[in-house]
Specification:
Blueprint (H helix, E strand, L loop, with lengths): L10 E7 L2 E6 L5 E4 L2 E4 L11 E3 L5 E5 L3 H6 L10 H11 L6 E5 L5 H10 L4 E5 L3 H13 L6 E4 L12 E6 L8 H7 E11 L2 H13 L2 E8 L5 E2 L6 E2 L9 E7 L6
Parallel strand pairs: 7-8, 7-10, 8-9, 10-11
Antiparallel strand pairs: 1-2, 1-6, 3-4, 5-6, 11-15, 12-15, 13-14
């Protein structure tokens, strides 16, 4: 059972309002400062998650246990992260679960790697390829903060030049030229293994689908995921004025083998 008491070293989500939340590490003797006053971490240690605390200026904050969603949204960023709405579909379409072995590229800030590691632990592994060293360092920090670094191997390599792993359950791509990886993905995947590719433009999708067809993949499908938030208030409920609409297209496929029975 996960810890229900706040201990030193925990990350907590300080909730002021829906638009003002803070993911912070509890450190004895230190304080967290906001425009609504400061909060002493010593006053949190030993308290139950879900409690509230009043800042030095008299504002009430609620202390929540962070969800996977919070670690992803609050990650340190040097690139655009994959949104939770897309990550959810990627995880579902990939068919992964505890014990799965996954090849992922590119790592970026590690948002997708964080989610994948969460679902394949405790015995699975994510092999995440990235050619930019500065991105890898950021991703490592985010994975450590989420407590998932042990389930990810960060690889400084161009995946378009080849995949080191074999017999993996899934290959998941979020990079500019996924079609260049398709032949390598076919070799690396186990029979019936899944490939999932996220691309922001339809031109990338077309080239990827063509490569999938040329390399004996089947069950090829492309979708776009849109989520529209609602502003809910009695007598005034309507769609939110602002929304994150198009983020990208998700293309999925499965490895086919041609051995006759």
């Amino acid at each position: 059972m996960s810890n229900q008491k706040i201990v030193e070293g925990d990350y907590v989500l300080l909730y002021l309002s829906q638009r003002k939340t803070y993911l912070v590490k509890v450190e004895a003797g230190k304080s967290f400062h906001t425009h609504k006053g400061f909060i002493k971490f010593d006053n949190l240690i030993g308290k139950d998650y879900g409690c509230s605390i009043v800042s030095s200026l008299g504002f009430e904050f609620f202390v929540l246990k962070p969800l996977l969603h919070d670690y992803i949204i609050k990650s340190v960023r040097k690139t655009q992260i994959t949104y939770p709405k897309d990550i959810a579909l990627i995880v579902m379409f990939s068919g992964i679960g505890p014990g799965s072995r996954i090849v992922e590229a590119g790592t970026g800030t590690g948002a997708l790697a964080t989610a994948l590691a969460h679902y394949i632990k405790p015995k699975g592994k994510v092999y995440s390829y990235e050619i930019r060293e500065e991105f890898q360092k950021t991703a490592e920090k985010n994975l450590i903060r989420a407590g998932l670094i042990d389930f990810v191997e960060l690889k400084a390599k161009d995946i378009t030049a080849g995949i080191d792993e074999a017999d993996v359950d899934a290959v998941i791509l979020d990079l500019a030229t996924p079609w260049l990886v398709i032949p390598h993905a076919y070799t690396a995947l186990k029979p019936c293994g899944t490939l999932v590719s996220f691309s922001p433009t339809i031109d990338q999708v077309v080239k990827t689908v063509e490569a999938l067809k040329e390399n004996s993949f089947l069950d090829i499908e492309t979708v776009e995921c849109l989520i529209r938030g609602m502003q809910v208030e009695r007598g005034k409920t309507r769609p939110q004025t602002l929304m994150t609409a198009h983020t990208g297209y998700i293309t999925t496929a499965r490895k086919m083998t041609r051995n006759a029975i």
